[in-house]
Design goal:
Largest sheet: 5 strands, mixed
Number of strands: 10
Radius of gyration: 27 Å
Structural class: alpha+beta
Order of helices and strands: EHEEHHHHHEEHHHEEEEHHEH
Strand content: 15-25%
Length: 277
């Protein structure tokens, strides 16, 4: 329904038609309707004067409700939808706003802005300046914020042990690497250094992100750094690379499809993949 143009006259209590019932007819307005219209107009006036936040109810936290459980208080900081996923994308390194909007699937610019503001206020994320000529602003996890990787690791392991651990959709480069770190196997003997370059094929013009895979203290170690003198360099679509690791997708098939390219020692790549099987 909509209000007719003479609503101002009707809101003053004068007789006439005010409501279009969407069937081409108008309905008469009695005193009750006039009162309702007056309330609506008053609310709209307040909204215009104070902004849309005038009608947002105050959110009560677990702390406000007197719950001293530290897990509950932690949820006050990271329990909202999208929050941990935003953190996931900045644990390994800084990201621009536009990159976060692409990586956190489905989030709107307004919600992303709100989550980043909250994460900065709580000291989990900080704004940084990238060392490029444009001095681009980006967002990165603080030292405290990076410790949430263990929370994501525990959630991933908990889900994997559930009745239906299957998932659908794709993986971002950092999401894939965090999964590699979560499931990092022991690496007995010498393991060749691997340069891993991942991109998200769901994006129209995806950037490629660099990682190094190596063995440290007998366990596979994956970091967001450029590998020097690697035995092999793998350039791969991030979801396909995760399927090679965790879903037994054959490397030869991915190479034929053009979603994975290996330069250098192919056997070194196969050795890394076998560690995850």
């Amino acid at each position: 329904m909509r209000l007719f143009a003479d609503e101002q006259r009707l809101a003053r209590g004068e007789p006439g038609l005010a409501i279009d019932d969407r069937r081409g007819r108008g309905r008469g307005v009695d005193g009750c309707h006039v009162a309702i219209l007056s309330i609506v107009r008053a609310c709209l006036t307040i909204a215009r004067r104070e902004g849309s936040e005038a009608f947002v109810p105050t959110k009560r936290t677990f702390r406000d409700l007197g719950d001293a459980c530290r897990a509950a208080n932690a949820l006050d900081l990271v329990g909202d939808r999208w929050t941990l996923i935003v953190v996931r994308e900045v644990i390994l390194g800084p990201k621009r706003f536009v990159d976060l909007q692409e990586s956190v699937r489905g989030i709107t610019p307004a919600v992303l802005t709100d989550r980043l503001r909250s994460l900065q206020e709580t000291g989990i994320v900080e704004q940084v300046v990238l060392p490029d000529l444009a001095r681009t602003r980006a967002y990165a996890a603080t030292d405290w914020g990076r410790k949430l990787e263990s929370v994501l690791e525990s959630l991933g392991r908990w889900y994997s042990a559930g009745p239906d651990p299957s998932t659908d959709g794709g993986m971002t480069p950092d999401g894939t690497v965090l999964a590699m770190r979560t499931m990092a196997p022991e690496a007995p003997g010498e393991v060749p250094v691997l340069a891993l370059r991942l991109y998200d094929g769901r994006r129209s013009d995806p950037p490629t992100r660099d990682y190094r895979v190596a063995a440290i203290n007998g366990r596979l170690d994956v970091r967001a750094v450029v590998a020097t003198e690697p035995a092999a360099t793998v350039t791969a679509e991030s979801t396909v690379w995760s399927r090679l690791l965790f879903d037994d997708l054959p490397l030869a098939r991915a190479e034929r499809d053009g979603t994975v390219r290996v330069e250098g020692d192919r056997e070194a790549v196969l050795r890394i993949l076998r560690l995850y099987t």
